[in-house]
Amino acid sequence: MVQEAGVPEESGDAERRLREAWSALLEDADRIADEIAAATLGGDQGGAWSTPELRARLRRSTREHVRRGLRGLAGVPSGEGAGGRLVDTWRATGVERARQGVPLETVISTYTSGNRLLWEELGRRVREGRLDITTEELLEAGRRLWEDLSVTGEVLSAAYRRETARLTLRDLRRQEDCLAGLLEGKGADPVYAEQAEEILGVRATAPLACVVALAEDPGSDVLHHPEDRMGRLGATSRWAVREGALYGVVEPPSTDEEWLTEALGPLVEGQVGVAWARQGIPETAAAFRLATRAAHTLPPGERRLAWASHRLPEVLLESSPEVAALLVEEVLGPLRALPADQRATLMETLRALLRRSGSATLAAEDLICHRNTVIYRTKRLVELTGCSL
């Protein structure tokens, strides 16, 4: 728990007495270390050391740190090369704790309580007359412990944060690769679905919403930090970018489409499509295709979320351009054959009627003309297309 001393050989009596005091503690190093570990485990309210394996590792690690720290303070040669320096142990501990998922504040707290218990043990032996050091020398020992703790914290924290960043990047890449596999249809393989469940953190057979956000340009932010908002609202989600689009799989707390629409709505800055994979991971490839088509049915530049289930005619046409072209020709062919001015007037009227759910009154307000004019044009549209509005 403490730093190796770099005290000159020609130290005075006070330095010699302090070294002898620390040396006297070496015989009880394991007992002291076990007390430190027990104090840490006793305050483990968050479950950082939740398994017997982790608790055993904590005890072994604490024993190693206490023994090596006391040898350093006592001036006892470690007999180890440069690779065995205590600073390397701190770094290794930072890396190991990051991999175990132990919070950094818990790790630093362990070192803090460890140094405190070491100093208290030194003070207890002074009070019992078992160590020959003065009060000033005891205070000096405490000062060194706290100075050393600062160095320990810096080295360990830096190693912990570097490893956390590396693990985060690795996990993100694994999630991106896994989502790419789902897009390719690998989720239908039970083995892959099981792996995806572990990597993505969603249940393999739970209903999943597959989201596709189309980016108009590489730098656009079609959905702003969706994973953060989903997490706050109790949903698990994973996201990745592929070929300029943002893909996401969401396991919401509810299969109510309105809930997810309201949850994602404030984040939408472009064309976003959503479709259900009702049977979970095995259906995600098909759901992603439907979500992509739903997004493509929205006009360019429109900031909106569209469910594939709400836009089935449009999705069907988007999935078959040949059918779409045939429908346009068959239905709107006579209209398109009109002179340009007549065609433009009737097309504008048709758009207004569709936008206003067929209401001639509301369409007339948009077109700034009389209601009877819209009714007349509507009859003309029916004659030309053969279709009721």
Short description:
This protein is an alpha+beta fold.
Detailed description of the structure:
This protein is an alpha+beta fold. It has helices spanning 13-25, 29-42, 52-74, 86-100, 104-127, 135-183, 190-200, 226-232, 257-264, 284-296, 312-319, 321-336, 340-355, 360-367, 371-385, and strands at 208-214, 236-242, 245-251, 271-277, 304-307. It has three domains: 13-169, Globin-like (Orthogonal Bundle), CATH 1.10.490; 190-319, Alpha-Beta Plaits; 321-385, no CATH class. It has a five-stranded mixed sheet with strand order 2-3-1-4-5, with helices on both faces. A hairpin with a 2-residue loop joins β2 and β3. The longest helix is centred in the middle third of the chain and has 49 residues, at 135-183. It is rod-shaped. Residues 1-11 have low confidence and may be disordered.
- Rg measurement, Å: 35 Å
CATH architecture term of the largest domain: Orthogonal Bundle
Strand order of the largest sheet: 2-3-1-4-5
CATH topology of the largest domain: Globin-like
From the N-terminal CA to the C-terminal CA, the straight-line distance is 81 Å
The average pLDDT score comes to 86
Structural classification:
alpha+beta
Judging from the principal axes of the Cα atoms, what is the shape? Answer: rod-shaped
**Sheet with most strands:** 5 strands, mixed
**How many independent structural domains?**
3
Low-confidence stretches at least 5 residues in length (pLDDT < 50)?
Answer: 1-11
CATH class of the largest domain: Mainly Alpha
Number of strands: 5
**Percentage beta strand:** 5-15%
The helix content is 55-70%
The secondary-structure element order is HHHHHHHEHEEHEHEHHHHH
Number of helices: 15
